[in-house]
Amino acid sequence: MIKKKNRTGTKIGLYLVYIVISIFFLYPVLWVLSYSFKTVPELFSVPPKFLPQSLQLDNYRYVIQNTYIVKNIWNSFYIVVLTMLGTLVLALPASYLFSRFRFRLSRQLQLFILIFQMISPIVIAIPLYNYLSRINLVNNHAVLILIYIAISIPMAVLNIKSYLDTIPKEIDEAAIIDGCSHWQILTKIHIPTSISGIISVSLMIMVSLWGQFVVPFILLNDAVKFPVSVGLINLQSSSEAITTHYLAAACILGILPTTLIFLILQKYIVSAMTAGAVKG
After folding, report:
1. Which of 39, 250, 251, 276 lies at 20 to 30 Å from 74 by C-alpha?
2. DSSP letters for 60-102
3. pLDDT of 164-212, one tens digit each?
4. What is the DSSP string of 150-178?
């Protein structure tokens, strides 16, 4: 009985910690959501009021009709999706190679990938701009996608390899005896078996690139081509107009796609975490 009470108390304590952490991270988002429904006078009310007097849906209507925010969200969406696909196409064979083969300089190559992952995009942004401007490839989504793929591959390779390492090698040996090639083993056994981990890695790529600001800010100069992270700059308040409520509405629209995708695919994240816990 004492053990059961201790376990119950531990669970209650953990849930309280989770609630406090959730409130800590959700509090700023809820304030932004509140701002997105307020009028200009309500923005400067003293003391500040969390709940608006009425829901000003006109803020969202204005942002959608009079700014490039919808176009910016679409830019971010297809850039991130193409980046994820390109990254997986290159990272899956590389992860399989490092997971199943032992060759000379294998450890050194993995260490090099780890070091490359630690390099911040800020370091390469300006040299890239100087180089791309000389060959007239600035303000190009295809180039931005290729750069994103290069940035994402190290993290994807190392994480996917850790999932492939959990698959027993005896399965590979049995498949080879049945006449399967290494490509068939990867596509028909490893990918279906580790699909939850692959989706988790894809979501990590999506979240990290959705909020990427420095690289597109430097490499793009057309507001129509901006991703949402850069497009929000055009809604900042100035000395001539107060646009905080419009900026808040645009921010809410900007985080909706990632939130919805996360909610739809959260079961894969949970299964990947559970598999890792069981493995450990």
Report:
1. 39
2. HHHHHHHSSHHHHHHHHHHHHHHHHHHHHHHHHHHHHHHHH--
3. 888 888 888 888 888 888 888 888 888 888 888 888 888 888 888 888 8
4. HHHHHHHHHHHHHHHTTS-HHHHHHHHHT
Q: What pTM was estimated for this model as a whole? A: 0.81
Q: Is 71 in contact with 224 (CB distance < 8 Å)?
A: yes
For residue 88, give both structure tokens: 């997986």
Determine the Cα–Cα distance for residues 137 and 131; give it in Å rounded to an integer: 9
**CB within 8 Å of 170: residues ≥ 6 apart:** none
* Residue found under tokens 């596509």: 187
The model's pLDDT over 58-81, given as tens digits with 9 standing for 90+, comes to 889 988 988 889 999 999 999 999
Rounded CA-CA distance 221/209 in Å is 18
What's the token pair of residue 244? 């905080």
Residue 76 CA to residue 220 CA, distance in Å, equals 13
Say how many CA atoms lie within 13 Å of 43 toward its Cβ.
18
Q: Mention every residue, 6+ apart, whose C-beta is less than 8 A from residue 112.
A: none
The packing angle between helices 69-100 and 141-164, to 10°, is 40
* Beta-carbon contacts of residue 64 (< 8 Å; ≥ 6 apart): 70, 253
Return the number of other C-beta atoms located less than 10 Å from residue 40's C-beta. 12
Query: ∠ CA(247), CA(253), CA(254), 5° rounding?
Result: 85
* Alpha carbons 246 and 224: distance in angstroms, whole number: 18
